[in-house]
Amino acid sequence: MARRNPNGYGSVTKLKGNRSRPYVVKVTTYDEDGHGRQVPVDYAATREEANIILARYNDNPWNIDRNRVTLAELYKRWLEVKAPKLGSSRLYTLKAAYKHCQKLYGKKYRQIRAYHMQATMDDCGRSYATQSHIKALWWHLDNFAFELDIIDKMYSQIISVSTEQGETKRTPFTEKEVEDLWKISDQKNVDIVLIYIYTGFRLMELLNMTCDQINLEEEYFKGGSKSSSGKNRIVPIHPRIMPFVKNRLKKSNEYFLETDEGSKFKKGDFYEEWKTVISYITKKKKTPHEARHTFETFLDNAGGNRKCIDMLMGHKSKDVGNRVYNHKTVEQLRETILLLK
User: Fold this and answer.
1) Fold annotation for 175-337
2) What is an example of a GO molecular function annotated in this UniProt entry (predicted)?
């Protein structure tokens, strides 16, 4: 009696009738919800030949019939091979973008055209940023599919995001709300909200910041992520938050912002602490990203140098002259930071 193949390995079955290649090689594929079904990947004249094909498939599934690879299968393989090379924040946005491609999960990737990709952005009903993430995901998948010889045309290169970004729903903290925070700055974690407002860092840029990224002697942070303009940027420490910074560093182990137990904040737990602090000053919802908007808005209203503001925010300057010829020193960045009251 022949030994059974391991679970998930696949099978070889002989079809009825007079056929030149009667042996069908079947493997199990899974959709995004984890439901598996057996599908044929090739046919053979003999059982021995079919078993060789099945063994080759299990050695490298991409060597067999690329015409049958679905979006869900390609995405799963991309997560295993390419995704680990991306930053955690970037990968999070691409995973979220994939949910908007649900109608195409079972579609063979070679059959996906530009209008299919475009529809996932146009019909998502989300912001400009979300549409940009969806486009970025298609770009990553197209590159991977091209590398595997699944496609010979990269339709992601001709799709586009709507230029209408719309009005942001985020509103900066008011001067009164910031002042109210200062009045209760001795309460638990209020210092964290003020640090976000006075540095302009993104949520994860500060949560991922380690103690060695803060230079107390020269009084600046060095951190950031997301783009070449944002990575490893220097943000001088405003005098008003310096006591908070020193206190945090004194009791921290590895990360600048840590829990009472001395561990790194988990994103969900951090949001709960944040909401508690915000409830002290307003019933409105305020997010860490609105603290970042506050930083930029206050500096702009105070007449801060646009190039300095862009550098502090980690933005690429929109003005080519500023971007290429204007190099600001740390002291000039510090002068801009001091415009915050």
Assistant:
1) hpI Integrase; Chain A (1.10.443)
2) DNA binding
